[in-house]
Structure formats: C-alpha cells, structure tokens
Amino acid sequence: MRLNNLGIVRTNIQRPDPDDVARLSQFGVATIHEAMGRVGLMRPYIRPAYTGAKLCGPAVTVLLQPGDNWMFHVAAEQVQDGDVIVAGCTTESEDGFFGELLASSLTARGCKGLVIDGGVRDVADLEKMDFPVFSRAINSKGTVKATLGSVNVPVVAANALVNPGDVVVADVDGVVVVPRELVGAVADASQKREDNEEAKRQKFRDGVLGLDLYGMREPLAAAGLEYVED
Length: 230
Prior knowledge:
By secondary structure, this protein is of the alpha/beta class. It has one domain: Glucose Oxidase, domain 1 (3-Layer(bba) Sandwich), CATH 3.50.30. Helix content is 30%, strand content 23%. The protein is built from eight helices and eleven strands. The strands form two sheets. Strands 1, 2, 3, 4, 5, 6, 7, 10 and 11 form a nine-stranded mixed beta sheet that branches. α5 (123-129) links the parallel β5 and β6. The longest helix is centred in the C-terminal third of the chain and has 23 residues, at 183-205. The chain is elongated. 43% of the residues are buried.
C-alpha cells in the first residue's frame, strides 16, 4: 500500500491539441487570466530569470525534494517536443536546483522552458541559450541526487495546482495555468477579449475617457462623488 505519491513516474500523459496550444501562445498571461475568469495565476514571486523570457507549453510536472534535483534527470526522459517542465517541492526551498547542464539536456529533448517554485543558477548561460526559466529565486547553492520525488503527478507550484498536460504560459507579467481540457475554449475566450480590448484601445487613442466609455459617471455620482470648483 502506497502512503504517498513519491517515487512515481507516469509515462503516458495526455496533452492538449497542439493547434490549441499554438493559438493560446499568442496571448499574454494577463489576457489569459482574465479570459478564464481571473483564475489560474501562480503567486507573483515567480519571476523570469532573465529579461525577455517567455514560454507556453504542456506541463511535464516534477515533484522535488528540498536540496535535491535527481528528479529533473528522470523527467528529461519524459519530455516531448514542445513541453515545459513545471517543478514544485515537497516543502519550501530556494536551492539552485537547475542550471545550464540540465537546460542543455532538456533542450535536446525539445523542452521549451522551466517554471520552478525554487531556485536556479547559471542565469547568464540560460539567457545565451534562450532557454526560458521562471523561478522563485536565483541561487548558486547546489543540490544533491539522493532522494526520490516524482514525475507527472499533480504538483502545487506557487499556490497553483498543475496537472500533467495542463498548459503553462509565462511572461513578464507572471505565470498562468490552463487546465488541459480547457485550452481550446480559453484560447477562444482570449481572442474575444483581445478583440474587445483593441476596440477600446482605439477609442482611448481617440480621446474618449474611461469615465464615459465604461459609463462610470452615474454610479460615481450615486456613490457621492462631487466636483467642486474653488
């Protein structure tokens, strides 16, 4: 009888339609988050390791033990072209789990980046490689390879639940998780929101005030807002 989900590698995960992933990749994190009903964000302490990093792809999930990066090497075997790695930890840890050598290994497998609720290092090399990384910390502290975690089990990273095959999108505004079965619908909703915002954007360029575009004057007056000429 298994008492926890440690020491498990699930080798056959479902991934969403690649065309839906490609459509979703056209939108920013803020747009996707709003289109889903303002849900799905990781905590804002997850930041790009270098300027310009961004990613979008189905998640291969990794559950790490603090101070131990063994499971990244196990996960590399499970990566397919276009995937991203999403790594959580059994408890908070900011050790430098990931660096240039692991990025080289994952790049050879077609991996498109990493989101980790932990630390990374070799940032200058990661930028040169154009391997996008979003992390909790930048930390040179090394790790060992001694304790089992798991691959392709549900993980919690920065307060967000990520299941294998969910699509993770990350840019300068943060990281959002889209459930695998909703990727197409969220791409549709994001496009609708983007079209709506472009119409508003043009009106703002034309000088229309948000007070009038959003019909704010009446509710502001009802709330007691007064204009006073001194």
